[in-house]
């Protein structure tokens, strides 16, 4: 039943006083910064249901990197250059003793010789980072993915997703051009391509229709979305619908009841409950944190 247009925007009690999201959103002001904070907090601080696609059994024995994926390597004890091979080409990389380097494959998978894998970079987190950032800034698709691998020296093992996020933030701050080069390599991976595709679709779209448009069976598409987002494709679309509506609300004077109905929610309370489920705060308290 359609609610009255005279309804208040929302009234609720604050929750999650000590949450990372509250600390983040209350430090920001302005629509652009607030939007980035909302998206980052909703996407990156949530727990991932499964990390099976991000881990590699027997890390020290890893000798292959699939396209668009990355691992952290250390030089072997013999101090010889690391040899990377792929597509009939050979690259030699010198890494100082005791140092680590991130190696990311481009458009072709590569094999390694003379290196010890010190950590496997969480593939879905790396892909989501790049895809969400590109979607937020409406970045142009990568026209051509380099064939050669990218080597970034001086990094940590980064087995934990939070370590990877910290590394990417620092890389973007310190060397935007190198971050862009990493983006062009990650874009070769299927995880990035699926994430960017889903982010470009209407949140109200049906999973079966998205799968058909992408060129996969519904079962295969749901499996890949689970690997990329750490949740089902349906739940990811729910999250996108909520974030789109929330971003519209935080910068407008539209009544919350109207905004909820425009976004496809059955009621204002349905919208409010879903936002609180995802981020632990009501739309009203997010709005106040941004505009006060």
TrEMBL record:
Entry protein name: HTH araC/xylS-type domain-containing protein
Keywords: DNA-binding, Plasmid, Transcription, Transcription regulation
HTH araC/xylS-type domain mapped to chain residues: 192-289
Coiled-coil features, chain-numbered ranges: none
Pfam assignment, any one: HTH_18
Keyword Transcription attributed: yes
One Gene Ontology molecular-function label: sequence-specific DNA binding
Entry keyword annotation includes Repressor: no
Natural source organism: Stenotrophomonas maltophilia
